[in-house]
Amino acid sequence: MGMTIAEKIIAAAAGVDSVKAGDIHTVELDRLMSNDGTTHLTIDMYNNKLKNPHIADVKKLVWIIDHNIPSDSPKTAASHKKMRDFAREHGIDFWEGKGVCHQIMMENYVRPGELIFGADSHTCAYGALGAFGTGVGCTDYLYAMVTGKSWLLVPETIRFNLTGKLREGVYARDLILTIIGKIGAAGASYMAMEFVGDGMKNLTMDDRISMCNLCVEAGAKTALMEVDDIALDYLHARGREPKHCFKSDEDAVFAAEYDIDLATIEPIVARPDFVDDVIPAKEALGVKIDEAFLGSCNNGRLSDLRVGADLIRGRKVHPLVRFLVVPASNEVYEAAIKEGIIQTFMEAGAIVMNANCSVCWGSCQGVIGAGETLISTGTRNFKGRAGHPDSKVYLASAATVTASAIKGEITTADKL
């Protein structure tokens, strides 16, 4: 029996010839990422709960401060210091104030065929480079950090065969929100979501990262894409080589398969308070907003900022709206400065922030109050995600978010 991409990566990490969905295997991890959301808890357990604390292979660890940076309180500052001091003491690769963890990982570490644990649910973004990335809690992270290994239940795989090309004004963000709406927030629970087909050649690396990143919102264990020339060009431009370039076998078994013509996708909005409560953006026109957010590990890349800048150039942010623009990394920020994108946003009245999780995390920047409405390119919109429990969060593409920031209500770019 053939194997899927997910099964092949797990088999290689387990040192066996084959695996199948439902098997449990002990696997060797290639890389372990943790951010300031939970790393302080991992450190406390390491120092206080282990009889023989040690790190199996410090070269596999990457620690990133991105959720509350700069720190928002003395409590956060103490947590950051604990993380900073531990990383320095043990020689862990450490990033602070350089961007969102998943963007930093894609820019600097992830290789096709790797098995990566991240102490963050959106680690599935790494599938855009053909790596099995999955989010874990700090206890599982600690075990992997100390042993270099963990166990995995081999997931079933749902395959999405993409054909055609997205129409002008429609983006990968609209595509993945459409898919989540189609299968539901639990539609891929503990499964791998695999994307293949001729339509892939029409999706950039930014598009692919955005799609894989959001798959956890359908409950997915991971997301995966075949490694093609687009992925290899991205990898080689950054001086890296693949570990493995896997494709699913023709006789691989899939839990379900969907055929999606990209030309049928339209601008989408996810309504409060569920990511899978999606409607065509045209059906949400006129909803008044108080704040708009362009950024996050899902839509803070250069192509997203370009889309927003092209729309807002020569226009102004609505006087009753705060529009926060947050690049996903310093690399993105610097490129946006060189292209004049940052200047364009500032001239329009947007608030440009340092590269971090920002509003998506809802803890340190742009927190919204009771009764306020946010339209966001962030990853989630559950109750209280961006601030007060009585606030509302709509999710949309960079184009729809920017157009809404200009008009002061939810609108699409073609309506400006």
UniProtKB/TrEMBL annotation:
Q: How does it assemble?
A: Heterodimer of LeuC and LeuD.
What is the uppermost EC class here?
lyase
Instruction: Return one GO MF term.
Output: 4 iron, 4 sulfur cluster binding
Q: Which Gene Ontology BP annotations are present?
A: L-leucine biosynthetic process
Which HAMAP family does the UniProt record give? LeuC_type2
- Keyword terms of this UniProt record: 4Fe-4S, Amino-acid biosynthesis, Branched-chain amino acid biosynthesis, Iron, Iron-sulfur, Leucine biosynthesis, Lyase, Metal-binding
Catalytic activity line of the entry: (2R,3S)-3-isopropylmalate = (2S)-2-isopropylmalate
Name of the protein this chain belongs to? 3-isopropylmalate dehydratase large subunit
NCBIfam families, per database record: hacA_fam (TIGR01343), IPMI_arch (TIGR02086), PRK00402.1 (NF001614)
What domain of life does the UniProt record list for this protein's source?
A: Bacteria
Give the EC number(s) under which this enzyme is classified.
4.2.1.33
Q: Cite a single Pfam family from the UniProt record.
A: Aconitase
What does the entry list as the binding residues for [4Fe-4S] cluster?
297, 357, 360
Corresponding gene? Answer: leuC
What pathway does the UniProt record associate with this protein? Answer: Amino-acid biosynthesis; L-leucine biosynthesis; L-leucine from 3-methyl-2-oxobutanoate: step 2/4
- For whether the record's keyword set contains Nucleotide-binding, the answer is no
Look up keyword Cell membrane and say if it applies. Answer: no
InterPro entries noted in UniProt: Acnase/IPM_dHydase_lsu_aba_1/3, Acoase/IPM_deHydtase_lsu_aba, Aconitase_4Fe-4S_dom, HAcnase/IPMdehydase_lsu_prok, Homoacnase/IPMdehydase_lsu, IPM_dehydratase_rel_enz
Q: Which organism is it from?
A: Hominifimenecus microfluidus
User: What is the UniProt remark on how the cofactor binds and its stoichiometry?
Assistant: Binds 1 [4Fe-4S] cluster per subunit.
What cofactor does this one take? [4Fe-4S] cluster
